[in-house]
């Protein structure tokens, strides 16, 4: 899929494709990058309380990464998923 096609997908589908591909291919770099941007995405989506929790609890970040494709958080992370998926067209 090209970037334009990826941009048309819902955030949940982008998340699921990107995370599934990264897990299947052992791409810990992408998963780590996702974990690092989740606190900023939480803040951008208006969840500043969640930002503080995410920064203090690694387990919360891991949980967030698995479920970070829904709602406002999923929408805030769309650019991360589109960028990753555009670099891995077989995802």
Question: Your description of this structure?
Answer:
The chain is mainly alpha-helical and 91 residues long. It folds into two domains: 1-47, no CATH class; 49-90, no CATH class. Helices cover 78% and strands 0% of the residues. It is built from seven helices and no strands. It has helices spanning 3-7, 11-24, 28-44, 48-56, 58-67, 71-76, 78-87. Helix 2 crosses helix 7. The termini are close together.
Helical segment count? 7
Shape: globular
- Could you list the spans in which at least 5 consecutive residues all have pLDDT below 50? none
Helix content bin: over 70%
Termini gap: 9 Å
Rg on CA atoms, Å: 12 Å
The chain-level structural class is mainly alpha
Beta fraction:
under 5%
Strand count: 0
Number of domains: 2
Main beta sheet, described?
none
Which sequence of SSEs, written as H and E, runs from N to C? HHHHHHH
- Mean of pLDDT: 85
């Amino acid at each position: 899929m090209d970037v334009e096609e990826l941009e048309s997908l819902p955030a949940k589908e982008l998340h699921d494709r990107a995370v599934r591909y990264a897990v299947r291919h052992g791409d810990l770099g992408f998963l780590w990058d996702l974990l690092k941007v989740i606190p900023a995405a939480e803040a951008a989506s208006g969840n500043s309380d969640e930002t503080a929790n995410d920064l203090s609890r690694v387990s919360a970040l891991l949980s967030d990464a698995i479920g970070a494709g829904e709602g406002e958080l999923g929408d805030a992370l769309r650019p991360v998923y589109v960028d990753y998926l555009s670099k891995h067209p077989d995802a």
